[in-house]
């Protein structure tokens, strides 16, 4: 088995650049995700690997073989399609057997391999049924079996769970991981759903506008976002516009703009060396912030700021508070802590203290986008679409 | 809402009237085919003798054979032409699209008489003797539009990701066509062929202009019999023909159900 | 960054592919294209040629003349055209009046009923054309079932002479062309979003207003298609007037047929009359088409 190497891949449609000079390597047996909003180029990338699109420039290497110009039917790569694309005029069995029948594999071998595959996806008792008589989850299983029977070196999955409901999606995600473990080949997974990508992948790549913004293990992307885009696209975060006032050995002092001429000071550890006076953005995940009506004891490495609760959303597993600090709005997740030290739940309009460890914030070497400077917004809704969505969100809030 | 109910009742009344209107003549025809009377009026008792006479009538036998032969051949040819054209018209950027669309849609609404007259004059101009060949040509000509449109409309709903899936699983283009696309086109092809078949059996006017003396199809024979006034056996013949088309429709429905599962 | 020569390469690739597909389309369309050109288009050229020749008792003399057109301009054939036009108009209107409620009812019934009702409408359509006309002759003739029933019910004392009148022709025309009206109407009404109707009523429109303000305008395309499918073939009606109508006042379809079939023949006049009919149809179709196009443009404007 060989690794997949993508070298300077570019693709355009009628002048629109869908994939822009992308290079990366996926290791053998890895479960790799492409994550990004719709239109970011992830599906085009996948379709080029499958052979449905020919790249304008660049190479796709499977091991030592250049497969860039090979038609799909000559590649040892198979695809799970978004809507499964099962052949409606064939039974489950015939669907799975399709690739082998094309190759004119002997009957007995087809039979044993199809049965083995159907067993793998737990569909052995549905073999005689037609696709329109089975459920969405079952169709998904058949699609997996059909794609795997040819023993591909790479399995491509294009938003495979998009058509399923939430419960089934979670269930199938685990199944997919089990199947990945069982067959041991490379899976390339495309999704716009960050939670899917986070839970399933060994590594993920965040894409936007045809470029890979950041790649790495999911926790790495989550904890150490390289850009504002990956910070907000993966998970939820608070983005605070800040200016470096001084640099110490292990941390920097930051002056944060809360709008209307209000400022507050925090400090943060850093992973790149900023300069004094540099404007940058602090990303602070909502679950890292503690919230309390009593002021915590002062400590060197704890940042403490004061705000007023604007909104409380009870979300079952946790409660989300929107806390106003000046004109900035902080999103704070608090797990099962609706009751506080004095047994009284926090209330709307109540003054509270927010505090976090200075290693929990993350500096991003980008100026906070427009609208941030005046301190209007620092809380992102989970964006729906491309980065245009960010601008829209910034303007509307 | 009172007025709402009123409208509903009005709709239902018109619907019932239309149904009566559509079926009464046919039902009376069927009943009278068993009437033991030379003329159509008045019930004179039950008989099947006209059906028996029918089977002895050589002219009718010949006309039936002609009709079937023309229908089968014109269905076959027009379906092949229609399937090919529909596949060609799938390409949205086809430069001949406008010409093809015009050639396919205009015959559809042209009064039959114009197609009949023009073909008759052309055959005369070319000194082609009228007969089976000319009738067949005429029938293929008016059937092509229908088969093309029916197959084309079914192709519009075709899911192209199935083609990609087949390609992905190792099938080359030609194999994809025969293993995936064609099987899924079959219901549309059957629908188109059925339409062509019924239209061919049904046609009177174009056949009237393009068939010579001595080549009668059933509609031509029936019209002649009506004019001559020998209508007793026609009731029986008509009943059989109605039964035949219903049988045909039932069969194709079943076949389609089998294929479409 | 994408360089210009990349773009060039991409466009050449796309061009080559679309050229290949285009060629494929031409090859696939060729059989039908050639067939319809030879047997649908070219015959009309022959009709034009024949309209400029001299008639003979059996065929034509190949001698150029405009006599056929002169004969037409003399006004002899105005009445058959007028009758055909009136018949087509009446047929279309009656089909619309009867067909709309039926199509509406089918479109609004449940999925299970829909198919059943549609089949009910189509079955007579599958029955042979000539036989359908014949069955009406039996039903309407003076000693026929209808008259017997009317007399038995004491509604009339003498048989009503419907057969061999224009009414008989119209009844059978409506009978034959009704499915052509119902089916396009049905598919137009079926596509309608009925929540719009509820919305209209919610906003205070009563049933009648909601129908005229919402349903009818939105099903206009179906009305349009159905009317064309009925009106144009009806203009050329031959066999229905022939078997049902009054033989003293001929329709244009009958006149053309007689000139072709009956001796002495007059093919040039038949050809010229066919061409006049063709021109009338072309004018109707082009007007309808441009009206439709204008509506489409207005629609897209509204969307913008």
What distinguishing features does this structure have?
heterotrimer, A: 397 residues, alpha+beta, Rossmann fold, OB fold (Dihydrolipoamide Acetyltransferase, E2P), 2 domains, five-stranded antiparallel β-sheet, 9 helices, 20 strands, C: 304 residues, mainly alpha, MetI-like fold, 2 strands, 78% helix
Notes on the structure:
The complex is a heterotrimer of chains A (397), B (261) and C (304). Chain A has 397 residues and is α+β, with helices and mostly antiparallel strands. Chain A has 9 helices and 20 strands. In chain A, a hairpin with a 2-residue loop joins strand 9 (203-208) and strand 10 (211-216). In chain A, helix 3 crosses helix 4. Chain B is mainly α and 261 residues long. Chain B has one domain: MetI-like (MetI-like fold, Orthogonal Bundle), CATH 1.10.3720. In chain B, 79% of the residues lie in helices and 0% in strands. Chain B is built from 11 helices and no strands. The longest helix of chain B is centred in the N-terminal third of the chain and has 32 residues, at 58-89. With 304 residues, chain C is mainly alpha-helical. In chain C, strand 1 (54-55) and strand 2 (60-61) form a beta hairpin. The two termini of chain C are 35 Å apart. The chains are: A alpha+beta (397), B mainly alpha (261), C mainly alpha (304). Chains in contact: A-B, A-C, B-C. The interface between B and C is large, with 88 and 83 residues.
């Amino acid at each position: 088995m060989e690794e997949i190497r993508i070298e300077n891949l570019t693709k355009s449609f009628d002048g629109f650049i869908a994939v822009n000079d992308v290079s990366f390597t996926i290791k053998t047996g890895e479960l790799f995700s492409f994550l990004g909003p719709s239109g970011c180029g992830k599906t085009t990338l996948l379709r080029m690997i499958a052979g449905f699109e020919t790249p304008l420039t660049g190479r796709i290497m499977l091991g030592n073989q250049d497969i860039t110009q090979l038609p799909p039917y000559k590649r040892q790569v198979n695809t799970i399609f978004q809507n499964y694309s099962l052949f409606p005029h064939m039974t489950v069995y015939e669907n799975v057997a399709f690739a082998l029948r094309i190759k004119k594999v002997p009957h007995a071998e087809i039979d044993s391999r199809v049965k083995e595959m159907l067993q793998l996806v737990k569909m052995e008792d549905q073999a005689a049924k037609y696709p329109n008589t089975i459920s969405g989850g079952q169709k998904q299983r058949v699609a997996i079996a059909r794609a795997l029977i040819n023993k591909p070196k790479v399995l491509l999955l294009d938003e495979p769970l998009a058509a399923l409901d939430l419960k089934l999606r979670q269930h199938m995600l685990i199944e997919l991981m089990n199947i990945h473990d069982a067959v041991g080949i490379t899976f390339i997974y495309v999704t716009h759903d960050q939670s899917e990508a986070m839970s399933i992948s060994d590594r993920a790549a965040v894409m936007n506008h045809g470029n890979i913004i950041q790649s790495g293990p999911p926790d790495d992307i989550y904890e150490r976002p390289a850009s504002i885009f990956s910070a907000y696209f993966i998970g939820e975060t608070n983005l605070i516009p800040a200016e470096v006032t001084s640099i110490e050995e292990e941390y920097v002092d930051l002056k944060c703009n809360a709008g209307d001429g209000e400022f507050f000071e925090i400090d943060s550890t850093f992973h790149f060396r900023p300069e004094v006076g540099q404007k940058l953005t602090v990303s602070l995940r909502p679950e890292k912030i503690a919230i309390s009506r009593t002021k915590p004891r002062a400590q060197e490495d704890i940042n403490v700021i004061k705000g007023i609760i604007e909104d409380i959303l009870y979300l079952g597993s946790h409660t989300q508070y929107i806390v106003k600090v000046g004109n900035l709005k902080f999103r704070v997740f608090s797990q099962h802590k609706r009751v506080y030290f004095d047994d009284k739940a926090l209330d709307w309009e109540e003054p509270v203290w927010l505090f976090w460890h200075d290693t929990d914030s993350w500096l991003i070497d980008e100026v906070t986008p427009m609208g941030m400077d005046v301190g209007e917004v620092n809380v992102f809704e989970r964006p729906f679409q491309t980065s245009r969505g960010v601008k829209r969100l910034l303007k509307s809030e | 809402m009172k007025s709402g109910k009123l409208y509903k009742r009005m709709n239902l009344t018109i619907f019932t009237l239309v149904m009566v209107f559509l079926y009464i003549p046919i039902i009376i025809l069927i009943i009278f085919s068993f009437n033991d009377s030379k003329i159509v009026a008045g019930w004179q008792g039950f008989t099947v003798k006209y059906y028996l006479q029918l089977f002895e009538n050589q002219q009718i036998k010949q006309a039936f054979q002609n009709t079937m032969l023309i229908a089968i051949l014109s269905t076959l040819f027009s379906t092949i032409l229609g399937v090919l054209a529909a596949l060609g018209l799938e390409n949205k950027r086809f430069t001949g699209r406008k010409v093809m669309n015009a050639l396919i849609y205009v015959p559809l609404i042209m009064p039959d008489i114009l197609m009949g007259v023009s073909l008759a004059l052309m055959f005369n101009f070319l000194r082609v003797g009228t007969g089976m060949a000319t009738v067949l040509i005429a029938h293929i000509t008016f059937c092509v539009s229908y088969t093309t449109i029916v197959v084309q409309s079914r192709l519009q709903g075709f899911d192209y990701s199935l083609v990609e899936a087949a390609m992905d699983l190792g099938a080359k283009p030609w194999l994809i066509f025969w293993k995936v696309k064609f099987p899924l086109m079959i219901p549309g092809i059957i629908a188109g062929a059925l339409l062509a078949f019924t239209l061919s059996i049904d046609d009177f006017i174009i056949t009237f202009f393009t068939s010579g003396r001595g080549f009668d199809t059933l509609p031509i024979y029936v019209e002649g019999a009506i004019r001559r006034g020998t209508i007793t056996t026609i009731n029986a013949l008509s009943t059989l023909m109605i039964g035949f088309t219903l049988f045909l429709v039932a069969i194709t429905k079943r076949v389609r159900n089998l294929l479409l599962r | 960054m994408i360089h210009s020569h990349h773009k060039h390469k991409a466009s050449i690739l796309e061009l080559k592919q679309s050229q290949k597909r285009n060629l494929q389309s031409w090859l696939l369309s060729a059989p039908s294209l050639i067939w319809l050109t030879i047997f649908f288009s070219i015959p009309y050229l022959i009709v034009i040629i024949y309209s400029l020749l001299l008639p003979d008792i059996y065929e034509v003399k190949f001698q150029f003349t405009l006599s056929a057109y002169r004969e037409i301009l003399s006004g002899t054939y105005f009445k058959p055209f007028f009758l055909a036009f009136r018949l087509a108009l009446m047929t279309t209107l009656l089909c619309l009046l009867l067909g709309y409620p039926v199509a509406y009812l089918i479109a609004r019934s449940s999925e299970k009923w829909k198919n059943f009702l549609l089949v009910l409408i189509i079955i007579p359509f599958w029955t042979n054309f000539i036989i359908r006309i014949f069955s009406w002759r039996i039903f309407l003739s003076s000693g026929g079932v209808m008259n017997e029933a009317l007399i038995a019910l004491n509604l009339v004392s003498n048989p009503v002479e419907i057969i061999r009148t224009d009414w008989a022709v119209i009844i059978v025309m409506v009978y034959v062309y009704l499915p052509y009206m119902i089916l396009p109407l049905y598919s137009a009404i079926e596509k309608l979003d009925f929540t719009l109707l509820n919305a209209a009523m919610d906003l205070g429109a009563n049933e009648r207003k909601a129908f005229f303000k919402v349903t009818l305008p939105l099903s206009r395309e179906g009305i349009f298609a159905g009317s064309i499918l009925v009106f144009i073939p009806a203009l050329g009606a031959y066999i229905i007037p022939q078997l049902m109508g009054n033989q003293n006042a001929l329709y244009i379809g009958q006149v053309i047929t007689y000139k072709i079939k009956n001796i002495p023949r007059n093919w040039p006049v038949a050809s010229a009359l066919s061409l006049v009919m063709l021109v009338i149809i072309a004018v109707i179709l082009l007007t309808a088409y441009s009206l439709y196009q204008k509506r489409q443009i207005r629609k897209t404007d509204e969307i913008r």
